[in-house]
Predict the 3D structure of the following.
Amino acid sequence: MHIAEGYLPWKHALGWTGIALPFWIHGIRKVSRAMKEAPRRRLELGAAGGFAFLLSALKIPSLAGSSSHPTGIALGAVRSGPSEMAVVGTIVLVFQALVLAHGGITTLGANAFAMAVVGGWTAWGVFRLGGRCGWGEGVVLFLAAALSDLATYLTTAFQLAIAFGGDRGGFFAAFPKFVGIFALTQVPLAIAEGMLTVFVVRLARTRTETALETVA
Amino acid sequence: MTLRGMVWPTGVAVLVGAAVLVPWSAGDGDPIGADDRAREEVHRMAPGYIPSREPLWQPASKRQESLLFAGQAAFGLLLLVFSVHRLRSDP
């Protein structure tokens, strides 16, 4: 659910870039700190980046002849932190914009805000909230990833609706239309991403962690 | 992590995958990307809108695009497997 190159008026493109900027700056600081810290932090970031690259490359056919891809942001947001993931997600977006003509550089700010910032913080928030409510880890991770996906596409629909809703019927007519376009593909994908995230987190568990859990 | 813990996510992932892929692979034609549908919708809503710029570079063909997507997936998978392997062997 990326906005294609050139498909935001200049003012909107610049505005979203401005909104994404502080998240990038803060994230780059956190990432460079993590790189200097324990090697575990580096490896966790590596896994998060790999997962995001892998998942956003999977164009999956979905309902009604549409296709889209999951985002893979939630895993890293939960394990490494949402600030760090804002940077990792943006790297994925830059790669896709330059190499695949998927998304774009003018729309990078908007896409990064939707996927890497809103997606990441939603995952983190749901994970924290679910943990505090004492739900099982699997359920919390599933919800974090699935809702992160949904939050991302809702943000994209919002960005398109405020940019293009003006002419006919305004924002409130445009928003449901864009939501409809993305919902069709994104809801099944969000469910799939939720499953996969649970799977990978369990796979990545170290022996120490498993041993601790067995004791506890 | 226990193998038993993997059973339900794997099972459900396979079921979801099958529910989507089986009907799709039986039909003809490629699915249309949601991003492209959104682009069409923009042109319907704002008929006079001209994209403010074109991508600097585009894959020359569908085949090239698929290859690049596969490359991205392969890179991501390698990085993921390498990192997870190192994390798991971390004492």
